[in-house]
UniProtKB/TrEMBL annotation:
It comes from Streptomyces doebereineriae. InterPro entries: dGTPase-like (IPR050135), HD/PDEase_dom (IPR003607), HD_domain (IPR006674). PANTHER family: DEOXYNUCLEOSIDE TRIPHOSPHATE TRIPHOSPHOHYDROLASE (PTHR11373), DEOXYNUCLEOSIDE TRIPHOSPHATE TRIPHOSPHOHYDROLASE SAMHD1 (PTHR11373:SF4). Residues 58-159 form the HD domain. It holds the Pfam family HD. This is HD domain-containing protein.
Length: 329
């Protein structure tokens, strides 16, 4: 059923999980704030949105995580708020140029939570900003962020949503949901469903190491560095742009205009190989920052104990290439 994402309807129904969320007043106010509205114009898939059909936004993902939290922890208002705001620090094109000029979306997100308008919204509804920040801390016992090696609700939505858009998801998400629970702040399920989730995790890792992701991401990072070197934008202003504003910035500077146009309209010319070849002066190096491989629990036990063959599949992701040479043919 059609639904808006600015809180005009009392109930938001997530189209992936088919969970109906009764929005609280603080959630409605947050959905109408600039940091949340901005996420509607940030592609969850980053630069690979121009090489694939993964066109959904960071806001869609954030609402999906809110839906999952409302399903498992309906009355935990702090956790619900944390789910909704967990990505407000993301740069344009999401993770694409994370680390350039030391930009970090977690740090930016924390700063935004402690500043207006988000701080004022939370205070108006009696929500502690510190409690939200703590819930999102990687060291917390939260099903949103704890256990870096275990599957949390944030990554669960990412893997399943990506699997649906790329045609890799054979199971009905609503059926998967009925087989999931939260144990020790991590996602736990049965052996069969764990296999489905591990398949999605592995497929996502292979997507990140493929031409579809490496090629466009490496070019955007080059262009962003030129914007910064040319003084067209300072790092923080660049970090708060939307995707359309970033493309406009590329078009506005002579040093980035031509390659930015090639990236959008002649992407097929981009070549990617793993390792150190070719020895071409026009080629450049690109290295992946990390490969995500979080694992679900099976009946509360780690995969290493309950399904070592699935643990081995995730362990094999370490063999994927992470260093590449890229060039325009």
């Amino acid at each position: 059923m059609p639904t808006n994402v600015v809180g005009l309807c009392e109930v938001f129904t997530d189209p992936l999980w088919r969970i109906s969320v009764h929005l609280t007043p603080v959630e409605v106010d947050l959905l109408r704030s600039e940091p949340l509205r901005r996420l509607h114009f940030i592609a969850h898939g980053g630069a690979s949105t121009i090489s694939t059909l993964q066109s959904y936004s960071r806001l869609e993902h954030s609402l999906g995580v809110l839906a999952l939290v409302s399903h498992f922890r309906r009355d935990d208002q702090v956790l619900r708020v944390a789910a909704l705001v967990h990505d407000i620090g993301h740069l344009p094109l999401s993770h694409t140029f994370e680390g350039v000029a030391d930009l970090n979306h977690h740090a930016i997100g924390t700063d935004l939570l402690q500043a207006d308008p988000v701080r004022a919204v939370l205070a108006r509804h009696g929500i502690s900003t510190d409690a939200v920040v703590t819930t999102l801390d990687k060291r917390s016992a939260s099903p949103l962020s704890s256990h870096s090696s275990l599957l949390n609700l944030d990554h669960l939505d990412s893997y399943v949503r990506s699997g649906r858009f790329s045609g890799r998801l054979n199971a009905d998400p609503a059926v998967l949901l009925d087989r999931l629970e939260i144990k020790d702040a991590a996602v736990s399920t049965d052996r069969e469903t764990a296999g489905t989730l591990v398949d999605l995790v592995c497929a996502e890792a292979r997507l990140h190491t493929s031409w579809d992701n490496v090629g466009p991401v490496s070019v955007v990072r080059r262009l962003v560095c030129r914007l910064l070197d040319g003084g067209a934008a300072d790092p923080y202003r660049l970090a708060r742009m939307t995707d359309p504003q970033l493309w406009s910035a590329f078009d506005s500077l002579e040093a980035t205009r031509a390659e930015g146009t090639m990236l959008r309209y002649e992407l097929h010319r981009l070549k990617v190989v793993s390792g150190g070849v070719p020895d071409d002066p026009s080629a450049w190096d690109y290295a992946l920052r990390k490969i995500y491989s979080s694992a679900p629990l099976i009946d509360g036990e780690r995969l290493e104990v309950s399904a070592p063959e699935l643990a081995a599949e995730l362990d094999h992701l370490r063999l994927l290439p992470t260093r590449f040479r890229v060039w325009w043919a």
